[in-house]
Amino acid sequence: MLVQLGFENLNDVLSEKEKINILMNKAHGLREIVNLVHISDKYKQFNNVYITNLQNSIGYKYDSKTNNFIAVNKSELLDDIIECRMIDIEIFYNNLEEKLEPETAKIVKRFITRMSDENDPLKGLKKEEIKLLLYNSRDKILDKKKEIEI
Q1: pLDDT tens across 32-77, in order?
Q2: How many CB atoms lie within 10 A of CB 3?
Q3: Alpha-carbon gap, residue 26 to 43, rounded angstroms
Q4: Measuring CA to CA, which residue among 38, 85, 79, 34 is closest to residue 62?
Q5: How many Cα atoms sit within 13 Å of 129 on the Cβ side?
Q6: How many of the other CB atoms lie within 10 Å of CB of 54?
Q7: pTM of the prediction?
Q8: Domain extents in the chain
Q9: Strand 49-50 relative to strand 58-63: parallel, antiparallel, unpaired?
Q10: Which of the residues 4, 12, 44, 132 has the least number of beta carbons within 10 Å of its own beta carbon?
């Protein structure tokens, strides 16, 4: 059963080891968490978003009310994914900061701060990175979508 974007509650689902691994990836932690949650086979219930085309403005997300994927504005979908996963990263950081090397903790904190600034160019770079990650993984996600429908 798929879970709608924003309702994943990753702090309760992911292991401490997975959370630390995400944080250890520093600025690449966002890519790591999106890959783990929205693409990998480990948490199929969270494979709830995908992008099929780079040329148009449409993305797809699972909607629990209709129990189906619906077309949405791709830019807004990416913003929602980034917002949700950055909240998770911030929660992980707040709970596990003392388990990180001081330099890693400092880099993660700076990453969180920069990603919260709408005018920071890093946010646009990460948005493009997540868009390409989802697009390049579309076949894998769509195959799992077919499995769920059967």
Answers
A1: 999 999 999 999 999 999 999 999 999 999 999 999 999 999 999 9
A2: 18
A3: 22
A4: 38
A5: 16
A6: 10
A7: 0.93
A8: 10-149
A9: antiparallel
A10: 12
